[in-house]
Amino acid sequence: MAMEKIFAALKKGVVAPCYLLYGEEEYQIGATLDKILDIILPAADRDFGLFYLEGENADTDSLVNYLLTPSLLGARKVVVVKNTTIFQSRENLADLIQKIRDNIDENPAQAAKSFLTFLKLAGFSWEDLQDDGWKKITDEEWHRIVEGDAGEDRAKWLPRVLALSSSLGLSPESGADNTEKLGEILQKGLATGNCLILTASAIDKRKKIFKIISAIGEVLYFGKVRSEAGQKENLIKEAQKLLENYGKKLTEAAWIALGQKTGWELRRSMTELEKLVFFVGESPLIEENDVEDVVGKTRKDSIFALTAALSEKNQLAALSALKALLDQGLHHLMILTMLVREIRFLLQTRILVDAGKIPAFKKNAEYGWFQKNVYPKLKEIAQSLAKFDGLLFSQHPFVIYNAWRNCGNFSYPDLVNFLDTLLEVDRAFKSTAAEPRFLLENFLIKACAKECS
User: Fold this and answer.
1) Whole-angstrom Cα distance, residue 239 to residue 254?
2) 190: nearest Cα among 215, 208, 209, 216
3) Which of 149, 332, 430, 437 is positioned for an S-S bond with 94, CB 3.0–4.6 A?
4) Residue 195: φ, ψ to 5°
5) What are the extents of the domains in the chain?
């Protein structure tokens, strides 16, 4: 009911100065955020009116400056802070450590960000922990600072998360905290037309900043649905929106197969549905055999997930896919080969786009449009070239489509540099004692960074 009232008010033009969306259900938080933005900020105004900050890295002073500065064009201005940590306190330290443990293998970059939040709240010195300095922390000191965590296994995760944070170029100073100042600004009022939207996974409701936002804005909680029946209901509701948008339907057998493979978990199921939509092309129906071909934890699926995440600059997904491949026993040299192959496809496509041989990707260009308007031009070009397996032209149209829609994420110099870097990784594999996993993780972290050059 709270959500319905909020959306009803938004549609009438009543916009609160601040919205907080928090909880464990990330997909629903993201979908609600998108819906709010669709109502209050037209797409045409977003270039100058929409600003994103990553909460685990953004400092509060920068946020305050955004909020106090009116829109350049006099229209509405929306500042979105994703995964903010301003609602956490020392009471959350044990939870943060558990989050680090849970993500250290699946999502190392996320673990590193949680670790920086942990350092800020715990008061440990970043410099003192470097170069095995963390070993000087006594059990007594650990128990005093981190209530509820024995700390017996910190030797397993602490040095690794320190290394990950350094490789990402992160440090506690990259996110200076000044929530008192933010609270004062919110109470006094933002610049006319400005709106702040925050998302968070966990909060401490006792914090003053939470009470301020609760008083002046709107707060929505998205808890994890525990029962399978509830998960199914949520998934069907969200999936229908996606399928209707693309004019697709799933057969009953396909629904069952999808649920069996994803456990009806919302975020993973929706990710797999998006893959299926593109996989079936112009076909309006997604069938059981399509689900069997696309969805799963096979080595082939994990390779697809890795190359897709790299092309889309999805850092966390890339690291997760890498772990899955290594856990399945795939040799690191084979993974390197697949990364080189993907970068080459992106580079070849980038060259064609930059030379004007094919059009640049458009956001509304679906696979069917690509097949009719871009792929024929590529086939014409291919007729004048010798046939080599390593060339983009010899690949399945869907592979080419993915390279075409993602090559704009990288510049030509970036892609050339990536090939040079992968050559150095190959040499390190064969001539040093460096851990292959860390070398590959470091490459993915840098390649998937928002700014590569």
Assistant:
1) 13
2) 216
3) 149
4) -145, 135
5) 2-86+177-222, 98-173, 228-296, 303-447
111-158, pLDDT tens digit by residue? Answer: 887 888 888 888 887 777 887 888 888 888 888 888 777 777 888 888
Written as six digits, the tokens of 253 are 């057998």
Strand, helix or coil for residue 81: strand
| % of the chain surpassing 90 pLDDT | 21
Query: Which class in CATH covers the domain with range 2-86+177-222?
Result: alpha beta
Note the residue count of the chain: 453
Which residue, chain included where needed, has tokens 């920068």?
A: 62
Helix axes 2-11, 26-40, angle to 10 degrees: 20
Which pLDDT tens digit goes with each residue over 184-225?
A: 889 998 888 899 999 988 788 888 999 999 999 999 998 876
Task: List the beta bridge partners of residue 54.
Answer: 82
Q: Do 190 and 11 touch, CB atoms closer than 8 A?
A: no
Report the C-alpha gap between 97 and 56 in whole angstroms.
15
Contact 393, 335 (CB under 8 A): no
Which 3 state secondary structure label does DSSP give 432? coil
Closest-CA residue to 225 (of 85, 27, 20, 436): 27
Please tell me the distance from the alpha carbon of residue 234 to that of residue 283, in angstroms, as a whole number: 25
Burial readout 75-94 (b: 16 or more C-beta within 10 A, e: otherwise)? ebbbbbbbbbbbbbeeebbe
Given the DSSP bridges, would you call strands 18-23 and 218-222 parallel, antiparallel or unpaired?
A: parallel
Q: How far apart are CA 199 and CA 55, in angstroms?
A: 8
Rounded Cα distance, 269 and 267, in Å: 6
Q: Quick count: other Cβ atoms within 10 Å of Cβ 402?
A: 24
| 421 token code pair | 């870097």
Angle of CA points 185, 187, 192, to nearest 5°:
70
CATH architecture of 303-447: Up-down Bundle (1.20)
61 is written with which tokens? 């002073």
| CATH 1.10.390.10, domain 228-296, yes or no | no
Residues in Cβ contact with 114 at an 8 Å cutoff, skipping those fewer than 6 apart: 56, 96, 99, 100, 103
First CA to last CA across the chain, in angstroms?
A: 47
